User: Fold this.
Amino acid sequence: MAFKFYFLINPVSGGGKGKLIREFLPEIMESMDFAADEWKVEFTRYEDMKGQILEALSCTETLIAVGGDGTVSSVLSTMLSSDFSNKVKIGLIPLGTGNDLARVLNLYKAFADQGLLFLVRRLLRADAVPFDIWKVNGKYALANYFSGGIDARIAHDFNHDRATGMISSNSVIMNKLHYVRRFFADRNYCLKGGTLRYVDKDGEKKTVDLKGHRTVIVGNIPSFASGANPFFKSDMADGLLEVVDVPNMLAFLLAIAIGNIPVVGHLYKKYLRKSTKVRSLEFKFVPEEFLQLDGEDVSGKLGDTVSIEFASQVQMLRLGD
Assistant:
């Protein structure tokens, strides 16, 4: 392979911070004694992103995705249809709004507290850890989480507001404030109907009626919607997903608000709002249900049946605790 490191930067993530990172990278890489022919950097091209990612994977030992969760999800989705999952390590420099994957890899706090130079210096020397990737309808990669219901409705309306110019700022803080406003506007939303069928960790098949429930959340990592953790003892490399069925608004608010609180959150998730470990699952939704995948709105893109099954493991760069 030609390069030790290949940076793919989403130029619009983080309000355009990706462009600034590209300007600083040469100085940072030189300070780490990497020669110019040992690394490469490119902006992502929306019109041919899959081909661009495949080209990058074919000529590097480590691919660094610079952007939000959606950027790294595009990389992982491309890896599903290639043979690079066991050959190329994946890193992330977080520029998104939620940054859930970066949080569990200990990258987000390092970047927010110490800045770009600190993160890059540590990231390029970080150890790689195994990380589960799941297939959604045999096509899309699930790295973080999937959900349908009120949270997916909020994500859908947020993306619509951004696309139509109702959100004028690219600030992460302003984006989060707009999410709060969307929550109050969409607070009465429930799943219109549907069923969940899954195979649990012991191989037993079960069915859940979802009609009237607020949301159902499927997690691969212990972080959801900008750092909440409604999952009990989630492990991102155990070949299992966590499913949290949320029947009412109180359960939804508690799952989001107290999941990370020591002792209290642990007891709540263990005894009250329990998550279920599953090996595979299938949803049957009513037409036009609101859905999200790794924080991205996928309403209307997956059809009425959504199946999720294990795909492979990749090697992700992770900073130590």
Notes: The chain has ten helices and 15 strands. The CA atoms of residues 138 and 225 lie 24 Å apart. The chain has two domains: 3-125, 145-312.
